[in-house]
Amino acid sequence: MMPVIYVVFTFLLSNAIADDNTKFPDGFSFGAATSAYQIEGAWNEDGKGEGNWDRVAHTIPNFIYHNDSGDVTCDSYHQWEEDIRILKELKVTHYRFSISWPRLLPLGLNLEVNQAGVDYYKNLIKALKAANIEPYVTLFHWDLPQFLEELGGWPNPEIVSWYSEYAKLCFELFGDDVKHWMTFNEPKQTCTNGYGTGVYAPSTKSPGIGEYMCIHNVLRAHAAAYHIYDKEFRFKQNGKVGIVIDSAWWEPYNATTDSDASERLLQFTTKQTTKMEWVMTQMLK
């Protein structure tokens, strides 16, 4: 994310300088973003189920640098009021956070809803609104319930229906106060690193197979959630649904000898997720 943020900031700054304007325009949105596994902690408290990152962090030595885990992290599950105080102090007006699927649904299925998880997110959203901070909510930021992982995870086509039920539940529970939804954060990372190289949870090494099955089902799940919101919730909640895409750009070191390698990297790391018309067109018809 840092190169993208840097490019955007540089672009905005250069435009401001070119216009001889050292002030941000009226209505400029200052935001901050987090993800549940990286800040919440409380990995097994108040009915939360095990997630795929919990499993790999606890069973694979040094899977995360220095043998770290998300067991405590920033302890935002207990310190969220202090987090909001800091956001206010920074004059942040928009805050993007993710819902932990296993905190809301311990097994990933709607058979069991964890009320403590519901209360946590409702209290967080209510407090953000009271502080005049607009919540932007990500439904999936890499932490899949371990029970679903053991059923095949994202390469399993059945996950589209599991995710659809989860998304619909979130719209029902929080949609009156949330007007900006992100279905997925950086699906390329989940699929390429989770089911290709195996350097992210669930640490499945299936290059050229698992990662493509994953991205196919992620895009189907995104489309399903979008249409659920569009048909059942948009008319009464008046919100928006999108997806967060990360990307990278590659240039050949030597235009003669490295152009093919550069293009292969672009095709795999950039164009497969940002220009996947052959999948997106079919989904959104």
Notes on the structure:
The protein is of the alpha/beta class and 285 residues long. The chain has 13 helices and 5 strands. Helix 4 packs parallel to helix 6, helix 8 (159-174) runs parallel beside helix 10 (210-232) and helix 9 (187-195) runs antiparallel to helix 10 (210-232). The relative contact order is 0.11. InterPro entries: GH (IPR017853), GH_1_N_CS (IPR033132), Glyco_hydro_1 (IPR001360).
Structural key phrases:
13 helices; disordered N terminus; single chain; 285 residues; alpha/beta
Please, what is the oligomeric state? single chain
Q: How many β-strands, per DSSP? A: 5
Biggest sheet, strands in spatial order? 1-2-3-4-5
Category by helix and strand content:
alpha/beta
